[in-house]
Structures are given as C-alpha cells and as structure tokens.
Fold each of these.
Amino acid sequence: MQGGIGTVELCEARRMKCSIMNQPERNTLNTPVTLGEVAQLSGVSRATASRALNGREGVKQDVRERVQLVAKSLGYRPNKAAKNLSSGRSSIIGLVMPSEELIVDPYAISLLQAVAKKAEERDEGLMLMLSHDEPTLAVRNTLMDGLIDGVILSSVAVGSEWVEDMLDAQIPKVLIGAHPFRDDIHCVNVENFEATVSIVDHLFDQGLRRIANITGCPSRVDAIERAKGFRVAHERRGVPIDESLIREGDFTQAVACRLTEELLKLEPEAIVAANDESAIGAIRAVERIGQRVPDDIAVVGFDGITFDQGFDQDLTTVCQPFEELAGLAVSTLVSILSGESPPLEQMIAPQLRIGGTSI
C-alpha cells in the first residue's frame, strides 16, 4: 500500500465500528456509558482506558486512539462527581456581578455571555452570584461550604460591602477590571488610557477641536483612566481644553442625555462619552433638538457592545475584547486553582472601530 492506513489497521477500525454499532440501544441520559464499558469494547483494562482518556503517559498511541474512538462513538463522558472527589474540586466557579447592572447594562450582559462560554469550554460549571447591599444566606453558605472553587468578579461590583469581604476571604479570585485601592488581587483588564487617547486623536484627525467629555462614575478605575486619556490626548496635541465642556456622568443613557442637552448650548464639535450607553444617550439628545450625528456633531463611545434597543447607527467606539477578556479571567482562575502563580495584573489592548458617528 502507498501511505494511509494499513490493511490490519483498516480491518481493526471496521471491526470496532461494527462492534459499537451492534451494541444494544440505550438511553444515555438514564444509563450513562461507564469507563468499564469503554475499556471492555476497546480490549484494554479500566486503568489503561483511564490513562488513555486523560492524556497520561504509558499508553501506546494506537491504543490511545482506539480507546478515544470507542469513547467518542459511545458518547462517553467522565464521571465528574468521582473526578471532583479525587481532585478536591467542585469544578464550579462563581461570577459576581451587580444585579441592577445585569438588568440595564449591555456591557454586563456581554461580559456574562463571554464568561459563560469560556467556562463551558474549560468544562467548568458557572454559578451567577448577583451582588446586593447584603448577600443572601444562600450565597453565604455557598462560599462557606466550598460549593464553588473560586470566583470571578466584575469590577463594577466593587464597593459593595459583601463583595469587599469576599475579596478579603481565603478563596481564589480574579477581578475583571481593576480595584481603585488594592493591587494584591489577580485582575485582567483592558487598557483604558491609551485607548481613549486614540479615540480623541481620531477626532483631532477629523479637524475637530472643541470636544466635550461625558465621564463615567468617578469611583471606578476605568472611568478615571478614560478621563485621564481625554486630557492627555489634548496635551499631546497642544489643544487647549475648555473645562466647561466636561461633565461628570454615571455610564447611563439617561444622565448622558441630560448632560448633552446642557453641552449642546455650548456648541461643541464632538462628544467623547465614557461608554457606549452614554454615547447613545448623547445621540438621542442631539436628535431630539433636530440636529444630526455626525453632520452637526460627532459622538464616540467605549465598549463595543451590541445594542438591541432600536439603535441602528454604526457607533464609533473602542471595542472591548469580551471573549478574550473572559477567557483570560477563566484561565487565570484555573491556573490559581492548579497551584500556579499567574501575574497579578494582565492587560489586553482594545481596538478602535471607526463607525458612522464620527465621519
């Protein structure tokens, strides 16, 4: 034969396929396939089958492939409960987010979806834990009883008393974002400062100079860094800032809409909003008085979220890499649980997306 699979191997593959197909039909939801069945049909011991399926050494490559083929054909899944007992883990991680943000903020929804996807890819269960002023008894018991291995926290939840208590607790944790006062917590974050500089530079490149800024919550690190980036962009280009064009927002559409109504009286050429929600609020205020974006005024945001609120403009914004951010958070937590020591701070650079609201 010229390359490919040999006669013996081909016959063996056909024999295995026929053996598998001739097995009596079963409802795997009620009677899951066992390791013993995989081993028996593969012609190996349970120990060999276990090593083959777990990628351990001491198994010939052809045996490993045979066991994996049988396991896949039968729909075998490892007994997670037994695995967890031997490892001392529950294989469940918690995700802490503010309950009110999850209801109204597309950023929170995007982050939740990304973390859930990445946890599933790592075969980790995910428990959503919504922060309030006080945790429920169920949450307290979950933390105390070891029902979860560790937690991922959105920095938006920082400030809640019980979240701060959790940050002090002896439980593996990773923060998505940054804490305003602590640098002893593993965190993964997007680069907010230079990203904001880039979006202001884009407006300067369009010939705009009279630029307003609606900031975010002053207690949050991301808002502080974005406000700083707005100012430094002006300094680097030698463009003076009109302080009357800066307004303190709170990352919400409603407040941004009200602040934009005030700013429009001062005739800015563009508005840099601290997030996409604020940018949408600004655009609605502009349209309310009969002006158009970007013909009369440019508006830019930050986050790159997907809107499902009747907004059909292509927003110029800094796009947060939600999946990359979530994947890094999950992998960092798993590394900690495995006894490794990942860096305390890991940063991801977001990308500027030029849309139709600034050109």
Amino acid sequence: MKPGIVFFLITVLFTVFSCHPAPQEDTRLKVILETDIGNDVDDALAMDMLHKYIDAEEIDVLAIMINKNGEAPAEFTDIMDTWYGHSDIPIGIVRNGADCETDAVNYAKAVCGMKDSSGKPAFSRSLDSYSDLPDAHLLYREILAGQPDSSVVIVSIGFSTNLARLMETGADEFSPLTGKELVASKVRLLSTMAGCFNNPELCEYNVVKDIPAAKKVFEEWPGKIVTSPFEVGIDILYPASSIENDFGWTALHPVVEAYKSYLQMPYDRPTWDLTALLYAVEGGSMFTLSPAGRITVAENGSTAFTPDPEGNRYYLITDEEQNRSIVDHFVKMISSVPESQKTEN
C-alpha cells in the first residue's frame, strides 16, 4: 500500500474516533426506595434527599415502592416526582398491606388536597390513575431482572411487607429465578430504618406494623443488611427553624407543606428515615458501623442483635459529634433549591 493511502486511512480513522468518543460508563448508584410515605414526615424529608441525589447525578432511581395502603401515598409521590422534575420514576404500591391509616396525621393526604386561590390543585401531577399502579413486589421482579448482578441498593424506610412478598415470589415472565434468588443475584445492599438495639423493651414502629414480614426479611434476606435503628434517628433532629426560615426561595414546597401539616409548628422531628438513605448513598463516613452479626425479630416485634463474624447484618451507631454533622448535612441538602425550581424562582 502506498504511503499516501496509509496516511489517508489513519486520518479518516482518527477523525471518526475523535467525533464519536466511546460512551462513558454510568457510575450512578442504582437505588430503589421502599417507603410508608404519609405515616411520618421523615419519609417526605428523605424523598427530598432522594431527588437531590438524582439532581447531583449520584443515583439512578429505578423505582419508588410504597408500603402504606391507599391512593394518597402514591398521589403524594407523584406530586413529589413531578415537582422535582423526575416524573418518569416507576411507582409500585401495596395492596392489603398493614393497617396504619389512623396511626398519625396523613400529611400526604393533606398535601394532595391543597388548592390554590382559584380552587385548582396546588401541585401538579403526572399520572392519571393511582389505583392501576402495579403491585410493588411484582414491579421489583421486573426491574431487578433487568439489572446487572450485585448492582442494586434497596433503601427500606417503612414496613417490610413488599420485601417479604418479593422473597416469596416464584419464576415468572421476567426471570426464572425465585424472589430470594433474584435478590441474591441483583441486590448488593439492603439499607433499612428499623429496629432498636439499646432497649429490648422498645418495639420499633416499622417492625411492629408487619412483624412476620420484618422477621422474614431480617432473618432470611439473602444478602447484606445495614439498619439504622430507632436510637440513631431519635437523636438527630431536623430543626423547625429550617422549615420556617430556609425556604423563602419558593412560595409553595410539598415537603414544607407536609411538615407543617404533620404536627403543630414549631417542632423538631427525628430523622430516622433520612439516615438509612444517607448511609446507602454516601457510605459510612458519618456513622460508626457495628460488628457483623445476626438480627432476630421476636413475636412482639422487638429486635435483638447477636455479634457473629460469619453474619451479614449490621447496624449504625452515632455519637454527639456525628449527630451534629449529620444534621448540618441534612439542612444544607434539603433547604437547597432543586434543579427543577431554579428556572422558576
């Protein structure tokens, strides 16, 4: 081949590869959020964080699974997804789940019912129907089957109902694997808010509302579990002063309205659920991790941790200095302006 032709071919190839660089690997953490949205406002605060992590391109949210009965939780989730500009996130719901409607003020229902001065809904929605959304445990199968092995992190900040039902599923059109096999293959971490390990007499809410499901998950889940127990979140309080003073950049905010609807202002609220999400996304730099062990759930819903070098259950621990650092982190993150609102304010 003549030298001139060789030079020409090299030039063409260089031009082609320069104009079409190799696609970059997606390094975002793949997350599924499992929530009892509407029972305690810490779920709403955690969901704000979820959307901020999406904005920062730190996570790819594969789905939001709801374990509180009713349409209001799904509608509130749709409001949140729409307001933050992430309305394409799939939503799964629970049917015949735990009875928890009268446990607390349903702030999700309160926000869904808000009207503007003209009598129209105060917040936009993206979905037409919530009763037609898929069962969460079946949506899990569809989503997990399409993910690379050991790539998914599930953040569970509510009841264990959907996770237990997933474990009980068999092969279907999405995967020949059973639920447990699918979890073992695809899920690298389950980060939960549940349990209590410094007071054997305290039966934590997320466990108590579906004790058989919690027992099944903690004792049979085929993978690593790190839980943020009651004693962590109770000492990390989101300040009412932030709700009152840090959101002047918008006239209407779904989380602020949820917070104001939940209890009489001003009040500081424990950040139980936020800690589980923080650990899942940012790792353990702000926490102390327990030794490896096993977690058991008693018939009354109390939880116990037994150290075991062969175990793969852990729980989070914090001290006062860590608590202050985490609060500062939460306030800075939650009071920041999401990308969807920067062009409107």
Amino acid sequence: MRILVDVTTWVPGRTGIGLYTERLLRALVGLDRGDELLLASNLATDDVDVPGRRLGPQMPLRALWMQTAMGLHVARERPDVAFFPNYVAPLASTYASACPTVVTVHDMAVFLHPETFTFKKRVLQRRLLPPLLRHAKAIVTPSEATRTDLLRLLPVDPRRVVAIPLAADPAYMTPVSAESQATVQRKFELPDRYLLAVSTLEPRKNLVRLIEAFEQVWPDHQEVKLILVGGKGWRDDAIAAALRQSSARDGIEAFGYVEFDELRALYAGALAMCYPSLYEGFGLPVIEAMACGAPVLVSRGSSLDEVAGDAALQVDPLDTQTIVSGIRRLLDEPELRSQLARRGLAQAQTFSWARTAEQTREVFERVAGGAMPQEI
C-alpha cells in the first residue's frame, strides 16, 4: 500500500500524539508488508527516521499548511490511504475524494472538559472536528471509552469508528541497569523514596489536587518527594501558583521534559506513579509506568478503567481526600506496592505496538478497498 502520513507531531521533545505517531509508524514498518510511506510535514523531518519519501514544503503555520499543501499532496499523490494521527486533516471535500482518509481522535476532552483548554483551542477544535470527521472514511480512537464518547457526542456512523489501544514502548519492558539508575539519581538529586507524576502541565491532569493531597501526606513522610515530570502545557498558572504556595514546597520538584532513558529510570525507581487525571483518551504514562514495574495510582473513569484494569489503585479525581488516602496506602503498605507492580507488569504486557500497527493497517486495507472499517 501507498500510505500518506501526517508526521507534523514527530518533532524533538515529542510527547503524547508525537510518540503515538512515531511508535505506530515504527511498528507499521516492522510489519514488513512492503508498504510505501509518504511522510508529510510543514517542518524539517530530520528526526523522522523511518523509510519513506518526504513531502514539504516547510511552513511556519501548521494549520495553513494542512489546508493548503497537505490537501494538494493528497490530490496529487493519490495514495491508497491518507492517515492523520492528530485530529486534523484537510477540510475540503475535493481532497477527501482523492483517496480514503483515516483520522485518529485521541479523546473528546475539548467537548467534555472545555474549561481545561484555551479559548482558541476550544473554539477551533469544537467547530472543526465535526465537519472534518464527516469526510473521514475511518476514525480511530485509542480506547473503547473514547469511541463511546465520540459516538455519544457527534453524529457519526458507528461502523466508521474503531477502537485500537496503544501500548508502552518495548524498551520500557527492559530492566534499567543499576548504573543508569544511579546516574539519573545523581543528576536529579533524587531521594531514595519518591512519588512520580508524568504529564504535560495543563489543567486536565489535575496536578493542583495532587499537590494539595501530597501536602497532607508530607508532614508524616518528609523523606519522600513528589517529582513532577512533563513539559509546559497551557493554562498552567494554577499549577505554578500551587507549587509556589505549597506548604510541602521543599518536598516537590518539577523537572520539565526529560529524555526517554531518563524517564525509564525515573519510572523504575519510583515508589509509585500518580496519575489523577480528570479525563484520558488512553493515558500512556499509566501503561509505561506499569511496564517499568512501578505501582500506579490512577483516576477512576474514562479510558483509565480499561487501560489500568485491576492493576492500579483507583481514586476519585475530584475528591482530594481519596487521593490522600491512596498516597498514604502506597507509602505505608509495601505489600500493596508489590502486588500492584506485579499486576501492572502483566497488564502492560497485554498491550503491543505490533498489534496496534496490525489493527491500524487492517483499517487502512478495508477503507482502501471501499469497505467499512468494521461491521457491527
């Protein structure tokens, strides 16, 4: 197959959708089906190290490039399928008629939790997503929960929407060496006991409540630190204020974005990874932490129920006291931590990027052949 792919999110320092794009493409190449990839971006693609023909031109505004250059690529190249892994695709129906398009919708947070987004993102995504999805031959979601939300909120034929779960990078399953662990511990001046939170700094990740919960626990566990890892997001003023004003400020560190191998070591050395997000389409850090053997505290609800299964300690993300109770249990009950670590590793092993690639390619084949993505 000739597959045109939007790789605009495959950039240095990528997280979330950028990692999804990278790992899915690597896994598609690994299937070795003889596919030709056409890799399109408005940015330099030096970091995109999978085989394929590069399509430009470089332009500073991705939105303008998507609705002009990308649409022209679709019309001119006429691939078997065009794949858009980041919600956005050319809107013009003339482009959509050139070949079938497949769009990944990672979550419906902008509809369900609009208060956690900037005004610009809220308005653009809520207005553009419905007409964009009308032209898509298939819509991929990373979980059944997101698929259910999408079908409930937008008028889309259920046969066009397919849930295909993500996975942890296989490298997370490889034990971190003692030397690497020690190097990271020295670099970040880590204590022996720390809790880890991995997410972009933005309201939906519920970090203010996590900080408030840690404040209540810290007086009894001052040997423990809360480590926040993740790049700057949007509307993070409340998070910054909570950090500045926290009574546990000496027990909290925010490291920003860290490199892949450093993150592996941080997961592996953590007492637990805390992920009290208000809503997730999948929640990659949950499965990554589990793959590294870290016990996980996670929100109840959205996709996290199916991703974590019974392998995590679940809390109500809106109730700070349940987060407090969960953290206390993780700190005070070593047998619980061991149990969650074992269950988490087994849960992580049920997900596979090879399977994700196989199922995604099956969707490509079906729409390229004129069939519905799935029969219901």
